[in-house]
Amino acid sequence: MNASHWSSATAPDLATFRDIAHEAFEALPREFRAQCDGIVIAIDEFPTDIMLESVGAEDEFDLLGLFEGVGLAQTGGETFTGQQPNRIWLFRRPILDYWAGYDESLGAIITHVLIHEIGHHFGLSDEDMEAIEAEA
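Above: the chain's sequence. Below: its structure in token form.
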């Protein structure tokens, strides 16, 4: 492919990024998705300062995704009156920045971040997920 073909290439906008995330979610095994009933997948450019503080991140590019809510381990899978839906945030700009630095497809990175945040919904810690990934 010649260089002029890439001169018009752009990073996916929020809507396209959202489509990629939803396709990644739909590609997960049905049994896995069934445990995610009611989860909202939200896309934003960057995390807020409050989100960064909640995980001890110092830079807006340090946080690719975030689980917000009460996980299955805490609720036993039941929802309570007035409870907000669990939400998985994916942050477009930090994910694109990560993508630019590694030899992985954007879809694979989005899927990885999505699964990681779903792991928090299941009650897994970062350490738990690192151990699972190391075994895999």
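The longest strand covers residues 40-44.
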